[in-house]
Amino acid sequence: MSVEINATNNQISILVSNALTAIKNRSTDAQWEQKVKNVADKLAHLSKTIKSSKSNAQHFGNAQQKQAAPEHRFSIKQSTNAKVANMDGLEAAVNQAMKKIGKQLKDESIKSPFKDKKSYELVDMLAGEVSSYEKLLSSLDGLAKSAISTTSTSNAVVIKNATTYLKTQGVNGPSILMLAALSLRVIAMMLASKQKSFDIL
């Protein structure tokens, strides 16, 4: 199987761009993680294709050298080495692409305000906002948006919709119970964002 150098390099660039864009939009795109995984799968497949192409070039080149007249063997060897070098370059490009995506995932995960905090510290962050009903509602919404970067978009949507609803209800028995439930949900999101790692690649 042959691999076209320029087309493959362009494909790698496009895949990396798609992955980085998905990571950048992680707070608004529920499918960002799947998009990054799809890119990683395509890069892994591309890597296998390149390795196969390099192996074929080496095998075919060696066979040609054995069959060729002595005066042609050197030029055949040079041609084979050039093809192998091109494949090596593509392999390096794929590896670099994977590293770039991995670094971006790591950099984004570090931005979480919950990273390296202990469980009681996370709970205390939320408990410190109970000074007023309105302040707690705003805090829940804000913390959910931060936690979404490492958990699930659906949780953030639930928090946003519920806090919007509670702002229209005022303080009463049912709203306090709902607020308590939301607080527990956000605490769970905070803990998840602290523990989750990005082993996509």
UniProtKB/TrEMBL annotation:
Q: What species does this protein belong to? A: Agarivorans aestuarii
Query: Where in the sequence does UniProt note compositional bias of the Polar residues kind?
Result: 52-67
**What taxonomic classification does the UniProt entry list for its organism?**
Bacteria, Pseudomonadati, Pseudomonadota, Gammaproteobacteria, Alteromonadales
Keywords in alphabetical order: Membrane, Transmembrane, Transmembrane helix
Spell out the residue ranges making up region: Disordered. Answer: 52-73
Q: Which domain of life is it from?
A: Bacteria
The identity of this protein, by name, is Uncharacterized protein
Spans through the membrane: 173-192
